[in-house]
């Protein structure tokens, strides 16, 4: 059975640059032989985490649905926006709700590839450090190499890849690496 990889961006914005990066990742992962599911967090709407809300209602249906999806995949590829040098509120809220699912959390045994896209000069690199820490605390391993796409508003071709050949090469290399690592872990 082929390696299954779940791909999503930490932005639900219609014209999100990170959604474009997630789509580029999905294409590269598919070319590398993975079975890819590209999802949009706009389809997994959750309230802002609040303990009283949780006591009254439990975990939101969207979190349970996303967790079920995670359970059926071997690895994650994330495109994470940077807000004030950290991850987006949407990404954090999604991870927080997922972490509230007890028994059978979708994080277990996962490896993740971390990427970011930003119109800024650092490409969202600083947020990835926070994302790595959070994921490690949840038991998700991460590839040491990341990709931060700077000036992302002008970084994509009409076909959806990265116009900078070196960067597109890095993206393909990282996708291939994630598929190799996830496949090896699945076989172990
Ligand atoms: C509240 C806020 C804080 C931001 N902080 C940063 C930042 O620290 N670094 C950065 O590169 N971009 C920052 N940005 C710009 C975002 O990277 C930019 O809006 C990006 O397009 C958001 O991702 P998306 O296109 O996937 O929705 C910030 C944007 C907002 C709204």
Automatic annotation (TrEMBL):
Protein origin, superkingdom: Bacteria
One term of GO molecular function: oxidoreductase activity
GO cellular component terms given for this protein: cytosol
InterPro entries xrefs: Flavoprotein-like_sf, FMN_Rdtase-like_dom, NAD(P)H-dep_reductase
Entries under Pfam families matching the protein: FMN_red (PF03358)
Ranges for domain NADPH-dependent FMN reductase-like: 3-153
Alphabetical list of PANTHER family matching this protein: CHROMATE REDUCTASE (PTHR30543), NAD(P)H-DEPENDENT FMN REDUCTASE LOT6 (PTHR30543:SF21)
The name this protein goes by in its record: NAD(P)H-dependent oxidoreductase
Species: Chitinimonas arctica
């Amino acid at each position: 059975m082929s390696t299954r990889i779940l791909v999503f961006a930490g932005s639900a914005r219609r014209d999100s640059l990170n959604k474009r990066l997630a789509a580029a990742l999905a294409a590269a992962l598919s070319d590398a032989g993975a079975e890819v599911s590209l999802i949009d967090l706009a389809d997994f709407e959750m309230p802002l985490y609040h303990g009283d809300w949780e006591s009254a209602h439990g975990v939101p249906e969207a979190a349970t649905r996303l967790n079920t999806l995670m359970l059926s995949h071997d690895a994650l590829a994330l495109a994470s926006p940077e807000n004030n040098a950290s991850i987006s509120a949407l990404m954090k809220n999604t991870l927080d709700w997922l972490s509230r699912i007890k028994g059978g959390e979708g994080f277990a045994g996962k490896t993740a590839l971390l990427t970011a896209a930003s119109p800024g000069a650092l490409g969202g690199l600083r947020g990835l450090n926070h994302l790595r820490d959070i994921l490690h605390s949840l038991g998700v391993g991460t590839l040491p190499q990341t990709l931060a796409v700077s000036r992302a508003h002008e970084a994509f071709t009409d076909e959806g890849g990265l116009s900078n050949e070196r960067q597109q090469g890095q993206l393909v290399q990282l996708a291939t690496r994630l598929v190799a690592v996830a496949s090896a872990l699945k076989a172990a």
